[in-house]
Amino acid sequence: MADGGGPGLHAGSRAVSDMRPARARTDTPLRVGVVGAGFIGETHVAAWAAEGVQAVIHDVDAGRAAALADRHGARVAESLDELFGAVDVVDVCSPTHHHAGVAIAAARPGRHVNCEKPMARTLADAEAMLAAARDAGVRLFVAHVVRFFPEYVAARAAVLAGAIGEPAVLRLTRASFRPRQPAGHWFFDHAKSGGIVLDLMIHDLDYARWIAGDVVAVHCRSASLAQPDAGVDHAVAILTHRSGAISHVSASWGYAPPIFRTALEIAGSHGLIEQDSTTTAPVTPSLLAGAAGGGLTGIADTGLAGDPFRLELAEFAKAIRDGSEARIGAADGLEALRIALAADASARTGAVVRLTQAAG
Amino acid sequence: MVVDPEGRAPVRIGVLSAEHVHAPTYISLLASMPGAHLVGVWDDDRQRAAAAAEPVATRAFDAIEALLERVDGVVIASANSRHLRLVEIAAGAGVHILCEKPLATTVEDARAIVDACARAGVRLMTAFPTRWNPAARALESAVRSGALGTPVFLEGVNTGTMPDIHAAWFVDPVLAGGGAVTDHVVHLADLFRWILRSEVVEVYAVANRILQERFAGVETGGLVSMRFASGVSATIDCSWSKPRSYPTWGGLSVQAVGTGGAFGIDAFRQRLAVYGTRETGISWPTWGPDADREMLAEFVSMVRDDREPAVTGVDGLRAVEIVDAAYRSIAASAPVSLG
User: Fold this and answer.
1) Which of A335, A359, B69, B265 is the most buried (most CB within 10 A)?
2) What ipTM score was computed for the predicted complex, to two decimals?
3) Average pLDDT over chain A, rounded to whole?
């Protein structure tokens, strides 16, 4: 499914997505470089490997890159330039505030770019990334992986099939524990990561827009759970869509490990869709061995219905190979960021932020 | 009549109006409640009074005065906008009052209801049964005991089917006072005030009229965000978002987050799933404890002991003020302050 033409797509994405690959490679496997050997970098390296692609890895921390490469039998590039020289696609998994720098540097020599969400830390950075991709004639994708989670895909398919009529009230929830990064980690530095709104809530902000279309007003309240450097640990945004639909989007790092609960409710003019990860888990082990409190960070169960990370990267790879659309374009990533930054600003000021999209 | 377990004279209770969907429930519970004597039902519609009285073989009164002179307390279960008039009559007769929620359709009426009872020296209780729901009480305990640490965020959902299936006045903007915001904000707003022991200082709300096949008479979808004086934030989804096909009327749930973790409740989770024929479909009858019974028992006890009820008229007024702020916010498309 590469429709990309749902209510959320903007004319603005055309400029980039109409670009054909700088170098068509339909015969040889795509060569992929992953920048950033952290949590999401490793997730992507593993997903690429499952797709038969042995990624080349670069990280400013050479030891960390080497350790990740060892775990997956991959190669390491000592520098970005070395990486760019060795691959067709650069998969940007670096800290959020470095996304733009890496993506633009990769685009200039003609590398296609897949960028982890959020697209960038600022709108200016995201716009510069779009411009760089356009200028270089390369594809640019933003990895909003929720668009590849089967339950979210199925819910959207039901909406598009008319099962519930016109979407009216959406309630999207993402609840987990505080990622176990050390104090001082970039993740907890709002200036670098954008906090819970840009990192966690943005998944559902993008999904709300995918279902109910463009957002014209954003209100958000947030709360900190009192750790000294915690930033915001719980936030709820209320969105007003241009269609008249309204969305309640909740993101939390306030729960106890190992929970990672996601829930969606889409109420429409003629029906209702409900889905909650706590009631749809197909496997509920309660094993004594290895009973522990969850990993580094909460992550949705992706095992049984198809790995969304694989589906996502495979769709991007296919789009690069054959020039097709992916279900999410760079302009969508930009709009998700625009909504997230508005929510973050609203949470700080208490005011409603009204949005006007570049593409209208 | 059921004799009080301690041998005291039963508290004489009447029901004023059976317009509200809860009236038959209250009548049935009061008819069998220890220590209470259900004297009868009055309604300005004689047939409705008779129909409400018949199942428990209580008396249907044609004249409201005739009922009022025979009772110690009344339960008012009329359409929302008619509460004030009935409260004034009952208070004038010196009778204690349990008034259905929302207390009124305007802040002015709600204040007049509280004032009328204070002037007459009668007790006024607002019908917020959620305070007696065991799951809600468990959340209150988790906050009170400190198990949740300092609460920082409460997310509430009180969604349901459109109540016009019970009575047409529920979707009449004048008689009901509004739609989903009027109908479903007050339970959680009151629960949150009770749990936090704090008042709402700011409200932001949005609403629309897309649900229920684009029913346009009143708002059917609504989301409300509020901030308490204590600094805690809370939200309420009050939408009439359950379609006719839903296996039950709706539900009430809260996810609370504090410095000590999170605490979730689902007030009506204790239910069966019953799969019937193609015609009867699926239903979810609840088997949990009956909060309505506990609420009515509190009213009877309050009347007998002539003391402040656990949920006062002022609690009802505060909830109406929050609803009013939500409508003001919807009109302004911006947060509004309160208090």
Assistant:
1) A335
2) 0.95
3) 88
Say if the Cβ atoms of A238 and B206 lie within 8 Å: yes
- B20: DSSP letter: S
Residue B3 touches partner A, C-beta closer than 8 Å? no
Q: What is the pLDDT of residues B38-49, one digit of tens each?
A: 999 999 999 999
Tell me the three state secondary structure of residue B233: strand
Question: What is the per-residue pLDDT across B80-130, written as a single tens digit (0 to 9) for each?
Answer: 999 999 999 999 999 999 999 999 999 999 999 999 999 999 999 999 999
Question: Cα distance from A207 to chain B (closest Cα, Å)?
Answer: 18
Q: What span, in angstroms and rounded, lies between the C-alpha atoms of A348 and A352?
A: 11
Residue of B213, B262, B334 with shortest CB distance to A254:
B262
- Residue A292, pLDDT > 60, answer no
User: What are the φ and ψ backbone dihedral angles of A14, each rounded to 5 degrees?
Assistant: -60, -45
Chains A, B: CB contacts under 8 A, how many? Answer: 126
Query: Chain B residues with CB inside 8 Å of A223's CB?
Result: 152-153, 232-233, 257
Amino acid B110: pLDDT: 98
* Percent of chain A scoring above 90 in pLDDT: 75
- B220 at interface of A, judged by CB pairs closer than 8 A: yes
Rounded to whole angstroms, what are the CA distances from A273 to A213, A349, B119?
17, 33, 50
> Taking CB atoms and an 8 Å cutoff, what residues of chain A touch B211?
168-169, 267-269
Tell me, which fold does domain A147-303+338-354 have in CATH?
Dihydrodipicolinate Reductase; domain 2 (3.30.360)
B 6-65 residues with CB < 8 A to A? none
Edge-to-edge strand ranges of the sheet holding B11-16:
B59-61, B36-42, B11-16, B73-76, B96-99, B124-126
Domain residue extents for chain A: 11-144+309-328, 147-303+338-354
pLDDT of residue A284: 77
Q: Pairing state of beta strands B124-126 and B151-160? A: unpaired
The stretch B237-262 carries a mean pLDDT of 95
CATH topology of domain A11-144+309-328: Rossmann fold (3.40.50)
Domain span at residue B194 reads: 130-291+320-337
In this structure, are B47 and B142 located in the same domain?
no
Shortest Cα distance, chain A CAs vs residue B227, angstroms: 8
What's the one-letter identity of residue A166?
E
Contact state of B245 with A271 under an 8 Å Cβ cutoff: yes
Taking contacts as CB-CB distances below 8 angstroms, the residues of chain A near B246 are 272
Closest by Cα among B286, B283, B282 to B267: B286
Domain shared by B179 and B250, yes or no: yes
Contact A339, A238 (CB under 8 A): no
Q: Which of residues 171-210 of B touch A (CB under 8 A)?
A: 202, 204, 206-208, 210
Q: What is the DSSP letter of B286?
A: B
Exposed / middle / buried, residue A186 (Cβ in 10 Å: 0-12, 13-18, 19+): middle
